[in-house]
Amino acid sequence: MTYHGPATRGSKSINLLEPAQNKDALLPASAVRYDFLNRNVSVPAEKTTYWCEAFKKPSINTKQHLVKYAPVIQKGNKGVVHHMILFACYTPFDESLLERGYNCYDSSKPDTMIGCGNPMALWAVGGEDFYFPPDVGFSLGAVGDPTYFILETRYDNPQQRTDIIDNSGIMLWYTPEIRKYDAGLAEVGTLVGDFMMIPPRQKSFQISGICNSNCTQAAIPPEGIKTFAYILHTHLAGRKIHVRQYRDEQLVDVLAHDDNYDFNYQQMRWLKKEKTIMPGDSLIVDCFYSSTDRASLTLGGIATTEEMCVTYIYYYPRSEFSSCQSLVSPRDQFSVLGMNESLANFDVESTDEPNHWTKFLQNAQWTPSLTSALQRVQLKGENYHICQKGDASQFPELPPLISKYPSYVGPVKDRVQDCLSSNASTVSTTVSALEMTTTTADNSANSQVKGFTVGIIVLFLIQMCI
């Protein structure tokens, strides 16, 4: 075997327990490929850039179903392209934007972008091709379906190079063979912004986003929706993410969980079994962060060194359920941190650094008592909620959504570990049986058989518990 050499080595995160897909059966022969690709983007010399380009739908005049999508990463740019999201636009769109790109979150971004907040396809570092289930597809070309799309590409350029040109994007496959259900995609978790705070030197700090029952009651049809895939997202400090489902103040299910979150593995993951969300259910997204290697406060934001707590959920049948997120009251956080009096000299709305309230926090002395106070308010303080449709409008029938972290929600447990512990007797009984049936002859061979058998049982239990 030829030595691979120093220039052709690397690593890739994978999930050995990911449910298998019969991909050949999921892409019909009638499927047509269409590409949304960036057009010679000169990546800015910034550590993090969110770049947006606008596109028009393929030339189709009848309903089709999107059944697969995949990333196209320009050669040499794998370390630069962090993620891509294709957003659908459900409001009037200015076609002049089709000729240019722009910074997605710059203050000068076009107003027409506001109605382009409904994600349709997502890819992130570590991800691969995604196939929709055999009876589900994302609708294209029908009356009411989007005509225009925004491709958001996040570029990581830590060396702030000026010579990077990119044409990466997303390939779609659509077919005229209409499937039984139209797919939808919903975002749940916390709102992204400065008011998400993680103190330094913390082994584990919890931030939670709440999708409350008022929102699902308004957004989800009476028969409910079925989830079939999800993608979890934090940045570098994230360690664990759990998405729990409650109904009538009782835990119904854990929709998604990862107790060993890897920033370099952000694959859209299939559920082994579809799960039903009913109107009136609450979804709690709990994210746990480690900041032991950080000397200052970490805030929420779009940069890699900032943080997020978001989960995207694919479901069917498609409904108005698009965005259901929350934010712990800034005033509650300021109060427990003893900042109310000090804030008299700070303009909370100002982005001018000398007057910005974050300046106060960065200079704070993060004692254990101060850190504990901030953690308490994350789990006890008021939360402001948003409940949005695909066009970014709010549900008009909903009152102002303000609530506390539900008192009936218990602490997050290591679900897999609890399951394995409860089945530990199975392994013990098997080992005892093997001891009784083996003889002292050929102890080495017997040990190998016993070890192999126990290993198979443990792998089976892990697969059962996830």
Number of strands: 26
Strand order of the largest sheet: 20-17-23-14-24-25-26
Largest sheet geometry: 7 strands, mixed
Q: Tell me, what's the shape?
A: globular
Amount of helix: 10-25%
Overall SS class = alpha+beta
Indicate the mean pLDDT.
83
The protein's oligomeric status is: single chain
Low-confidence stretches: none
Describe the protein in words.
This protein has 466 residues and is an alpha+beta fold. It contains 8 helices and 26 strands. The chain has helices at 23-26, 213-219, 330-336, 357-362, 368-380, 415-422, 424-437, 443-465; strands spanning 32-37, 41-42, 48-56, 64-72, 81-89, 101-103, 118-124, 130-131, 136-140, 148-156, 165-166, 169-175, 181-182, 184-190, 197-198, 205-211, 225-233, 238-247, 250-258, 269-277, 282-289, 298-299, 310-316, 323-328, 382-388, 402-404. The strands form 6 sheets. Strands 20-17-23-14-24-25-26 form a 7-stranded mixed β-sheet. A hairpin with a 2-residue loop joins strand 18 (238-247) and strand 19 (250-258). The two termini are 37 Å apart. The model has no long low-confidence stretch (mean pLDDT 83).
Name some characteristics of this structure:
466 residues, alpha+beta, 7-stranded mixed β-sheet, 6-stranded mixed β-sheet, 34% strand, globular
Which SSEs are present, and which pair or pack?
Elements: H1 23-26, E1 32-37, E2 41-42, E3 48-56, E4 64-72, E5 81-89, E6 101-103, E7 118-124, E8 130-131, E9 136-140, E10 148-156, E11 165-166, E12 169-175, E13 181-182, E14 184-190, E15 197-198, E16 205-211, H2 213-219, E17 225-233, E18 238-247, E19 250-258, E20 269-277, E21 282-289, E22 298-299, E23 310-316, E24 323-328, H3 330-336, H4 357-362, H5 368-380, E25 382-388, E26 402-404, H6 415-422, H7 424-437, H8 443-465
Helix pairs in contact: 6-8, 7-8
